[in-house]
Write the C-alpha cells for this entry.
Amino acid sequence: MRPRPIAPKPGQESVWDYPRPPRVEPVHGRVVVEFGGRVIAESVSALRVLETSHPPGIYVPIAEWAPGALRQAEGSSWCEFKGRAAYWDVVASDAVAERSAWGYPAPSRGFEQLAEFVSVYPGRMDRCSIDGETVQPQEGSFYGGWITANIVGPFKGAAGTMGW
C-alpha cells in the first residue's frame, strides 16, 4: 500500500516525484563527509541518485576521498538498476566504520557515470553535509539516503516500509 506523500512546500522536493528507474544528476553544492574527527571527503562534483520513495543517495568521486579513507571490504550486493555494488570500510586514524561505503565499479547500462564514485551511510559517519547543512540518515540499515530540509517523504527504510 503506497503511503500518502507529504506535499512539498516551495523549494522542497518530494521523494514521491522521483522516478523509477532512478535518475542520476549532479549535486548542486559542496558535499563534505567527516569521520574520525576529520574531513575525509569533500566535493563540488558529487552526484545524487533519485529513486521513488527514497531520499537521494549522494556519491562522491573516489579521487576526492582522503588517501587511505577507503579500504576495500568483502562482499557485494545487487541493485536491480545499478548492478553489483562493492563495499569499503571507512577509515580515519583509529576509527573504522566497516562496510559503510559502497559504489558500482562496473555499473549497469545507464548508470555508467557512477563507476568512479562512492557513497556512505551518513548515520555511520560523524557528519555528512551538503552546503553546510547536516544531513539526516535514512531510517533502517539497508538504504543510505541523505535527508535535507528540502526533501520530504515519507521515506522508505523504516520498519514496515519494505513493501512500498
